[in-house]
Amino acid sequence: MAGSNTLFSMFVDTYEKNREKTAYIYKVQDEEFEVSYEKLFDDALVLSRAFKAKGINKGSKVMFVCDNRYAWIVTDMALVSLGAISVPRGSDTPSTELGYIIEHSESDFLILESTALYEMHIDTIKSLKLKAVFVIEADNMHKIFDHTFSYKDLLKNRKIYDNEIEDFIALGDNLYEDDIFTLIYTSGTTGKPKGVILTHTNIMHNVKVIPDLIALTSDDVWVSILPPWHIFERAIEYAIMSQGSSIVYSSIKTFGADLVEYKPTLVATVPRLWESMHSKINNTLEKQDPKKAKIFKKLVAISATYNRILREAKDELPRFKKENFIEEAIRKLVAYTKLLFIYPLNLFAKKKLQAVQEKFGGRLRLAISGGGTLPEFLDEWIDAIGIRIVNAYGMTECAPAIAGRALNCNTFATLGTAVEETELKILNDKGEEVPCGEVGEIVIKGPQVTPGYYKNEEENQKVFIEDGFFVTGDLGKLTIRDELIITGRSKEIIVLANGENVDPSRIESTVAMLPFVEDMILVGHDKKSLAMLIVPDFEKLKEHISENFGKAVDSIDHVLEDKQIVNKIKSDINTLLHPKKGFKPFEKLSSIHFLSEEFKPGEELTNTFKKKRHFIEKKYKELIDKILP
User: Fold this and answer.
1) CA–CA separation, 572 vs 569, rounded Å?
2) pLDDT, tens only, 312-330
3) What is the 3-state secondary structure of 17-60?
4) Among 102, 290, 341, 562, which one is most buried in terms of CB atoms within 10 A?
5) How far is 340 from 363, CA to CA, in rounded Å?
6) Are 446 and 421 in contact (CB under 8 A)?
């Protein structure tokens, strides 16, 4: 049935139920704006009308480059209403990538956040055959015989006539569940971004399951900090909208202050932000009073220890085989005995740690972490200070929810069970399901899974296997209660702690051009930044150092001891990874390290000389952790 289960039908339903309720709060130069769901609806209507007048219709593909701001959701809903297909990207997208995505997606229209972005990409824009370009934050731009418009040009007439509300709502009759609503380009192993097709069915499955998993209600208040084009944030915002909750748009600079001011009940962040907060709290205490810092760490350790023992007693830790009655009884008896001794200390610790919760506003009932693997120490730390953390697992191809340790699961150190209507299997190299506790590749099947990659049949053949299961590229294992634990990844994409995806092949192929580089591997999965382990041709490296530094070196250790040489070579590599050459700001190296051993076939390399990334990362784990703490 047309329009019965689409994003637009959800939007209209929310508008009709929550007209006067606050939808968004945001600031512009310290001036606060509060927007009701009725105002959001009106703004989307006016923009939809303007877009339609400029030729945007059902099936039109619209490249949309913008970061976190209220205009993003208005634009998104306006495009959804028309059945247009948004192709979103962040403001740090290089011009070469912008051009590639526009051409590959066959986008006819382009929306940019600011005049600065317009000027940055002007050469690319002029080289493309676009029907129109729209700029959100700009003065009047339109000139006769020109197809560039600012939103000020578009929205001169904001009056809404009586019949237009009905006509706007009736647009939903032209939308179907299987219609594509967005194409999200994500990094691919070939070096070219892949266009992930997402339909209304895909995203509405997330909108349906997320609220129940976190007991979301219209009384909840969120502080939002993630870029809205990221599918994790995008799905969360749609789920929030579906329940008539409120969102406060924040930023990295104001996040801490906004938590205190707006007192959210929920937040959704990537692991990098949790790591930043962990460091900030500990560093601040160290500077203020080292003794207090030691006491704080001790309190956290007591709380974490108590929580771990309590979970042992309550059977809320991962289990991979069933225990007999006697084993279970002994384990629980030991745990409860330990609890008796530590209970008084834990009461004291928990009381003191309540002060930390005030830094999050004092009302935070749940914090969701997604977009990357949450390190175990952070998981325990957040839990120890008294915040219930929802550790989620997903990917763009699943819009994004696959599994999550939400309110339906108390088993710590896991990602919970697969979300509703989702089949999840762990397969070995032969495609056979493995027993509980054994590691294999994660494959899934469910209504949230993408129909495929846009104009990329080769990649589709790789990721869809028998019975329609989708190969995630991640490695994991299941507990006896079907809770998922991620152990690594089989795909090559590096996911940084802030959720950004990095294709290592592009960077590695660029660095391979240096004469003294024999082999290399880019590392940084779940880290703040990237590093490179380089296998040098030592004779050529000696020549390079002699010619450029006037120094003689006789070993790899000698090179590593000279920070001037290492830092200059790193700087030279980063020069090659310039945005003008298609690299993003986060695709820079924060560290390099020269290896004294070459990669060998059968060990670090396959028989066809492909790098076995998991083996290399495991072998050099201590080194990687040292250069990328």
Assistant:
1) 5
2) 999 999 999 998 999 999 9
3) HCCCCEEEEEEECCEEEEEEHHHHHHHHHHHHHHHHHCCCCCCC
4) 102
5) 30
6) yes
β-bridge mates for residue 147, sequence order: none
In sequence order, which residues have a C-beta less than 8 Å from that of residue 501 and are 6 or more positions away? Answer: 186, 187, 493, 494, 495
Burial 126-145 (b: 16+ CB within 10 A, else e): eebebebbbbbbbeebeeee
Strands 246-249 vs 148-150: parallel, antiparallel or unpaired: unpaired
d(CA 183, CA 11): 20
Question: Is the torsion defined by CA of 603, 605, 606, 612 positive or negative?
Answer: positive
**Least confident segment among 188-197, 332-341, 349-358:** 188-197
Closest CA to 66 of 4, 134, 125, 13: 134
Helix (H) or strand (E) holding 150: strand 148-150
The pair of three-digit structure tokens given for residue 348, joined into one six-digit string: 């004291």
**Residue 625 in 3-state DSSP?**
helix
Whether 483 contacts 436, CB under 8 Å: no
Residue 168, both tokens: 């706007």
User: Among candidates 500, 437, 427, which has minimal Cα distance to 470?
Assistant: 427
Residue type, 506: R
DSSP characters for 301-340?
A: HHHHHHHHHHHHHTT-S--SSPPPHHHHHHHHHHHHHHHH
C-alpha 62/C-alpha 105 separation (Å) is: 9
Helices and strands, counts by H and E, the chain: 22, 24
**What does the pLDDT look like over 225-264, one tens digit per residue?**
888 888 999 999 999 999 999 999 998 889 889 999 999 9
Q: Could you tell me which residues come within 8 angstroms of residue 568 by beta carbon, excluding any fewer than 6 positions away?
A: 548, 549
Q: Which residues contact 260 (CB under 8 A, 6 or more apart)?
A: 358, 359, 361
Helices of type H across 64-199: 70-82, 95-105, 115-120, 122-127, 151-154, 162-170
Q: What share of the chain is helix, strand, coil (3-state, %, to 5)?
A: 45, 20, 35
Q: Return the residue matching tokens 């209209």.
A: 12
Burial of residue 568, with CB atoms counted within 10 A of its CB: 0-12 exposed, 13-18 middle, 19 or more buried: middle
Cβ-based neighbour number of residue 396 at 10 Å: 19
pTM, two decimal places: 0.84
State CA 374 to chain mean position distance: 12
Angle at 462 between CA 461 and CA 467, to 5 degrees: 70
Distance CA 583, CA 589 (A): 12
Read off the amino acid at residue 133. V
Report the SS3 class of residue 102.
Answer: helix
DSSP assignment of 63-89 equals: EEE--SSHHHHHHHHHHHHHT-EEEEE
* DSSP per-residue string spanning 333-375: HHHHHHHHHHHHHHHHHHHHHHHHHHTTTS---EEEE-SSPPP
Cα separation, 488 vs 480, whole angstroms: 20
Whether residue 529 has pLDDT greater than 50: yes
Q: For residue 504, what are its two tokens?
A: 């290592």
**Tokens read off for 537:** 């041709």
In terms of Cβ atoms closer than 10 Å to its own Cβ (0-12, 13-18, 19+), residue 566 is middle
Residues linked to residue 222 through DSSP beta bridges, in sequence order = 247, 266
CA distances from 146 to 64, 110, 134, 150, 506 (A): 20, 14, 11, 12, 37
Tally of CB atoms within 10 A around 465: 15
